[in-house]
Amino acid sequence: MSSVAPTRDRIIDASVDLFGARGVDAVSLDEIARDVGVRKQTVLYWFDSKDVLVDAVLDAVAAELFVVIDAAVRAAPDDPLERIDAIVRAVFRPAVRRPALLGLFREVSRLDVGQADRLRRRIQPLVDRAVDYLAGEMSSGRLRVGDPGLVAALGYATLTGIATEPEALRAVGWSAAAAGLRRLRDELRSFLRSALAP
Known about the structure:
It contains ten helices and no strands.
């Protein structure tokens, strides 16, 4: 984000990178302020506490996810396997450009109950849409019949597992670099296509 962006946006942007790279608990508001080039009081002007800042970061990432997925669905042909493929590519694109987002996924698994519940409520409409879409396409015979909720959960678990279990992936020769992310994305696309073809 450029230096002409509003201060609030620059704070969120820096927080995504710092939280993703080092973990929420390891990053202080002082460090965020230094990274943005403002005083800690400026950070506290925009965000009353670190918890409020974490919530704002999660809101921003969830909003970006909504936009990315909506754009992928609108641009994809009317074929469920093509749409699922487009969604996987779209979700991976920001992570390839900005690997700290994967670290942020890891941090989501460590949220306190209140923050985790707020995040769940933010993404619930997206989950509901995915489950409804899968159920409709399974009913019409355009996707293999299965439990649409579990299929959606397996896709989510795969994406979050990339962030939360990097050592398991490294054990099979995977690297968290951009090329490794693209390779993983392509394997997931192939796997989902094979698993869901009618």
